[in-house]
Amino acid sequence: MAEQNLFEGLAGESRVFKNREKITPHYTPEKLPFREKQINEMVLALKSALTGQKADNIFLYGKTGTGKTACTRHVLAQLDEFIQKNGLAAKAIYLNCRNYNSKYKVLSTVVQDMYPDKDFIGYSGSFIYEKLTEFCSEKKLSAIIALDEIDKVKDLDDLVYALTRANDEIKKGAVSVIGISNMLTFKERLDPRTKSSLCEKELVFPPYNAQELMKILEARAKEAFKEGVVMDSAINLAAAIAAQESGDARTAVMLLLRAGEIAEKEGSAKISDKEVEKARKSVEEQIVFEMISTLPEQQQLVLLSIAKLTIEKKGVRKLKGEEEGILFSGEIFDEYKRIAASYKESPVSTRWFQQYINELEMYGLLSTTASGKGLRGNTRLIKLSMDPKEIRTTLEKQLNQ
Description:
Layout: H1 36-46, E1 58-61, H2 68-86, E2 90-96, H3 103-114, H4 125-139, E3 142-148, H5 156-169, E4 174-181, H6 192-198, E5 201-204, H7 210-224, H8 232-245, H9 249-265, H10 273-294, H11 297-312, E6 326-328, H12 329-342, H13 350-362, E7 366-370, E8 380-384, H14 388-399
Helix pairs in contact: 3-4, 3-5, 4-5, 5-6, 7-8, 7-9, 8-9, 8-10, 9-10, 11-12, 11-14
């Protein structure tokens, strides 16, 4: 007798989901509530491209899950639709710099998009750059290049300079940039010339509050789940958890998605507070580790230094009866310099090191406190907020790619 297929019985209609895709973090809804202001400002900044002129360079920044990518994709999709409908000489290209993390990779991918029938593998950077300016000049075309996670580009100053300089060489047409970053202080690290050219127009995406997240979840739940499946209290709880953690819409959406999967697995046709609470731990862990993987390389090296020192119990101490795992800022900086050298990276200054510590604390990855009297003078005590072994494994995988 033949064995039953492993997927037998799984292809039937879901008791919970109407369209599961619409409650995933990657889905972009037609309407983006509470981001109307940012969308309108983006549209106004880009309108010059409709007449073949240079659109404003735009820099979008805010924490993860605040709608930067969703708004950009929505605006670019609307722009592309309008371009195609009216036969305009404009083109919008979206790239995530986690995959295209150098000037050469960005420019060659953009040019490949412009010349889909040609192969540019192996050509020099200067040749690729010339093809970009040639295409815009010949087509009298305004190109808009959206660079998500722009802080991942290793030679960003060179890239922005090249894209800005292109406008001096394009006779008719233009190149504009949309830069997107989760790092709130990222622009402070840019060369002054890069900063002035990239940040012609800046848009801040603030975290969502609980009420806004509740409205977002209500709209997504209507699209994704069958009628009457999601209880109001489940939506309220998912919104409250996400607002308390970070104001991250992606966290709220993932909580409801995982809660739906739990309900379906357990044979329930209702999603209640119980399912949301069950989903909470796995979602929080997933969000945190996704965030770690998107940190700039230097910040990953700092975090790896803290994780390694904590695991190796070097300098780990108890203070005033507190839990173990407390480190001095100075010893972390020394370890960071050693690890940076092992990855053939130049360490940043102590000023930027302290700024990285501040940002890692803001993201909830660690906690800091002043040492007080009697401990190495004026220093900071730092403690990791997560499992150091999991952080080390995640970061070493990222850094060794």
